[in-house]
Every structure is written in C-alpha cells, then in structure tokens.
Amino acid sequence: MSKKIAVISSKTKDAQAAKKKLEGLYPTAPEAEADIIVALGGDGFMLETLHRTLPHCKPIFGMNRGTVGFLMNEYRPDGLMERLSNAKLHLLHPLRMKAGTKGGKSHQALAINEVALLRQTRLAAKIRIYVDGKVMMEELVADGVLVATPAGSTAYNLSAHGPIIPLGTELMALTPINAFRPRRWRGALLPLSSNIRLEILEAEYRPVSAVADQTEIRDVIDITIAEDKSVELKLMFDPDHDLDKRILMEQFVAS
Description:
- The protein contains five helices and 16 strands.
- By secondary structure, it is an alpha+beta fold.
- The strands form two sheets. Strands 5, 6, 7, 8, 9, 10, 11, 12, 13, 14 and 15 form an eleven-stranded antiparallel beta sheet that branches. A five-stranded mixed beta sheet has the order 1-2-3-16-4, with helices on both faces.
- The N and C termini lie far apart (45 Å).
C-alpha cells in the first residue's frame, strides 16, 4: 500500500515553486491525513516543521530549497516515491529546558538543536554550572553558554567552536560563547543522560536570556536542561546522504 504524502514549503520563491512542481507530479493529501510530510526549505523551516508537528510524530523528509540545508536531502523532483521507500529513518529526542525568571514564573520549551543562554546587555553573563547536582564550574564569565544535541552540533555550537557530535554517540556539547573567565575553557562533552543546571549570578545587573531553538525566555535566573525521551522525532534521509555521513564529512571541511 502506497504512503500518502503531504507537501509543505517555506515562503521563499524556490520552495513555493518546488511545492507546485511536486504537487503536479504526485498525488498529495492534507497534512492531517498524510503518512509522510515532505518539507521544502532550509534548516530553519525544518525546525519550524518539527516543532509544529510534534503532537503527530509523523516522519518528515526534507528537501533543500534554502541556504544550508544540513537537515535536508538534495532537491530532486523525480523518483520521490522510490526515495521515500528507501529512505533511512532517524529517531531524535529533543532537549527540554525548564527556566525560572526574576518574576517568579516558570517556563518550559523543547530544543531540537540547542539551548543557548545569552547576555542581554553590554555586561558579560556570570553563570554557575551544575551537572547531575554537582557544581562543575563556580563561575563562567562569558557572552553565554549553550547545550547542543548531536543533530544541532553543526549549527550554533560549531560556530561557537564546539565539537561536532556524530549521531549515536549519546553525547551532548556544553559550549561557552566567547568565554572571558576561564579564558581557555572550551567546554565539555556530557552524556545525553546528564541533567544540566545553569544558575545566573548577579542576575539583577547581568540579565540573561534563554533560547530553546526559536523560543526565547528573558530575564532567566535558573535553567535546567535534559533530554526528553518521551518525545520522539522522525527524520528521513536518502541512504547515500544520511545525517550520520553528513556529520562525519563536516568534520573534514576546512572552511
């Protein structure tokens, strides 16, 4: 029995044109009735789609009609149904961020790529780092710090000089952003089972925002981050262009 597909796209001209092309070549269904979602755009659109479709947990096959497209397959309109039949399925679990703010409120958000803490003013942030309840760093003075998943390790984490993490290694990256003290600290690799707590020091004078992918919480004072095994994401990749291989090859790119 053939799978029903829904084709969605970002608002760019290239993505809209690709959507029209695919809908002319293949029978499509409304997103709610589809077995597989074909997403056309870039990595940002893929993240939006993953967050929006979380309750349905449907497999998503992305094709790059954006800029970077690390989470996307190559765009080719022909042979789509065969590609979907042969695609490799990756199961991902996001990070769950719980953040308390100066106003006494509590917030939660999921991050597929990373949770980033960023200074809100000209003053550097001061952050105390706990791992599984133990203080690992009394005071990090920096523009911020981020926690990245393996799937997100080639995004903001890589730009902040964090390590690339192949899928299946059960690790996440704790990476400082422009660290001032300790100046030579480059971060740490932690088990995905770790519970990370970040306490904002001098929060009244050095306000900090917490960003989980596209959700920003301002004036945070205390943040916990842990993998949420109860949430499952399904990404599909061509066998010759899957995410494991892309992460491996990215480690040998010079520029």
